Amino acid sequence: MIVKKIALALVFFYTYFSPTVVPILTVGFFIVMDALLAILVCIRTGEAIRSRKLYRTAAKFAASGIIILVAHVMCKQYFNTVPGVEIATGYLVLVEIKSIDEKAEKIYGVSMFKWVLDRLKIRNEKLDK
């Protein structure tokens, strides 16, 4: 009897939170890529790789998952018209992309964000003339 109730609860939670699987995996992918790039930076600069830094990655992944789950609950229960999961996921991915860009700048010496902004500025200046 207790096993049946636990199974029903698990099915409920899986069904309720199933729309958040893809956003959580997306953010998780960028977190893993950021961690791998951080390890590469440590190898290139000769800095020691510490478990404390890897612990931050696990904490970041857990916090991101919780943020997405809370956004899902808030949208389901209170704000049906606001795409909160998409907003939260977009913000978290943007933060991770910025972090990846900072680490890539340490390795390659060029920031992709700055490069794109410079190209857009040059293009806008040509269009204004």
Question: Terminal Cα separation, in Å?
Answer: 77 Å
Measured as a percent range, the helix fraction is over 70%
Average pLDDT confidence is 85
> What general outline do the C-alpha atoms trace?
flat
Please provide a written account of the structure:
By secondary structure, this protein is an all-alpha fold. It has one domain. The chain is built from 5 helices and no strands. The model has no long low-confidence stretch (mean pLDDT 85).
What is the topological layout?
Layout: H1 2-17, H2 21-45, H3 51-77, H4 84-108, H5 112-128
Q: What is shown here, in short?
A:
With 129 residues, the chain is mainly α. The protein has helices at 2-17, 21-45, 51-77, 84-108, 112-128.
Keywords:
129 residues; flat
